[in-house]
Amino acid sequence: MAGKTLYDKLWDNHLVEQRDDGTAIIYIDRHLIHEVTSPQAFEGLRLAGRQPWRLDANLAVPDHNVPTESEERKGGVAGIVDPISRLQVQTLDDNCDAFNIVEIPINDIRQGIVHVVGPEQGATLPGMTVVCGDSHTSTHGALGALAHGIGTSEVEHVLATQCLIQKKMKNLLIRIDGTLQDGVSAKDVALAVIGTIGTAGGTGYAIEFGGDVIRAMSMEGRMTMCNMSIEAGARMGMVAVDDTTLEYVKGRPYAPTAQQWEQAVATWRELHTDDDAEFDRVVTLRAEDIKPQVTWGTSPEMVLPVDGVIPDPEKIEDAGRAQATRRALEYMGLKPGMAITDIRPDRVFIGSCTNSRIEDLREAAAQIRGRKVAQGIKQVLVVPGSGQVKAQAEAEGLDRVFIEAGMEWREPGCSMCLAMNADKLGPGEHCASTSNRNFEGRQGFGGRTHLVSPAMAAAAAIAGHFTDIRQCAEGQS
Amino acid sequence: MKAFTQLKGLVAPMDRANVDTDLIIPKQFLKSIKRSGFGPNLFDELRYLDEGQPGEDCSKRPLNPDFPLNFDRYQGASVLLARENFGCGSSREHAPWALEDYGFRCIIAPSYADIFFNNCFKNGVLPVVLDAQVVDELFTDMYAQEGYSLEINLQAQTITTPTGKVIGFEVDAFRKNCLLNGLDDIGITLQSADSIRSYQQKLRESSPWLFDVVQ
Ligand code: SF4
Fold first, then answer.
1. Looking at the domain assignment, is residue B190 inside a domain?
2. Could you say which residues of chain B have pLDDT below 50?
């Protein structure tokens, strides 16, 4: 019998019941909850007179609606100016109280974006099944977990049964071998993967990321990669457990200790694909070929290396693609043949569950230290992914670097990633953003998003236009 | 989900074809964080003379005196008699939520929009399909007699009129079972509760670090 992939192992380990119609009942170890997709699920429980199946499997944190300006934040939930946002956050508090679910509230130092908080607290661990009513739950797969987003009725289903009805996915291995160039980060690799396989390339698959580059990558980088799996069409992405994983997990507040730690490590060491396992599909990229990436369109697959030029729809043979390109260029206000480095952002956003961890902020700060935001840039928001990240960054003096450069150092939350709070783009404004979606209107009505790495976003803020940070790195040394 | 077995209920009319989900519950109410509480806004645009806003106290709003649901004789109705293609339009589950919240547990019509039809079963509302001819007769009888009610028996798949006439109806066996037993997806999964429990017990033994930590 052929060996098992990491995904096969995680699936088999959580199989409660296989049914004849191909569906299975899968046990869920960790359910993360935020304020936007949970209210109707709690309401559903209430109406049906049900209680959560297992309280200690749940952890809630508000993130999407929370204000990031410190003045507005001071008042806690009551201080949230927008009444609809306030009600949603208040409702999460109330539901957690009513159902005895542990919540990290708005101004707790551990609060932040749910996908930053989970791993940071050790609430998501290797080998777990992790779900949340949010598509970027794929992030947690970086720990060697089976993690994916669910809808509101499934949120209710998990609360009530600790399980989900699932069908097994196919296995896709994405292998990146070699060594990344200086200035190229996990975000660039993720965007290059999406540029290669397309936004539907991973549909129907569970992705495993492997190869030299992934093995050498930090946990923060792996989380960035897995976070973007959903933008490649896959509900889940994952990375095998190794020493990097174990070092990251050790000592986290909810991680096992002492003898249980030893026991857990022994189990977690098995969480890798067997040598003789077969994938349904394998995609390989060479690390040396990957340059810093910038999206120019309205889908993450509309991406180019920083030294590229905007494509000409007239030269695209496929009629559908030509049309999509034309529409995207019109929305983005860009002309064919224009150099990516000539695009001048109006605003810069460094944050989101893709790139708001300490390493991301360090990489951004390295581009900024001692420099000033370029004239013509209206605003640079730096939004740490959690209160812990914020505290760590401040301990390292990164906040001073950002503030002295003329940037805004904010409180943790989703912020301008989806513009559900006050942080948004104006119509027609270009944004260099470290988030994950460049859809029309995502960061504000009429806003134009360019997805980039934290270092690329920071460099654009300083230069006033996109710039090849590999050249900056050379120039500095 | 509430089980549906038998119902004896006052009948109210929604006497027009192609009633869409926008008409059943207008878009401004979808902003709600709740799945309940849509009842006061059921048929909002027909029921009130002003434009409704989410969160507004509907008891102070001017009622449309010409809309049947506002008539005294239909207060407390739990069966809605309707026409062709009821529930067409968007997929919003808020539509059956609103009907159920108002107090309707059964709809009788010649046909329904597909998604709405499915959504009803998920929310404890029985949508009965009867011949257009039969529905027409029910409308006539209902208008003729104040307090007109029908007895619906899901197990027997029958509707009994006040004169004792029995009308049979069809219903999908799987859906019937779910509705009779009040089973939704969650209910069905909970039929495997023993398997879940025994899985969980083994997990607790093999991986104790997954338990009792977050509390
Ligand atoms: S940061 Fe953006 S993508 Fe991530 S959870 Fe928040 S809104 Fe979603």
1. no
2. none
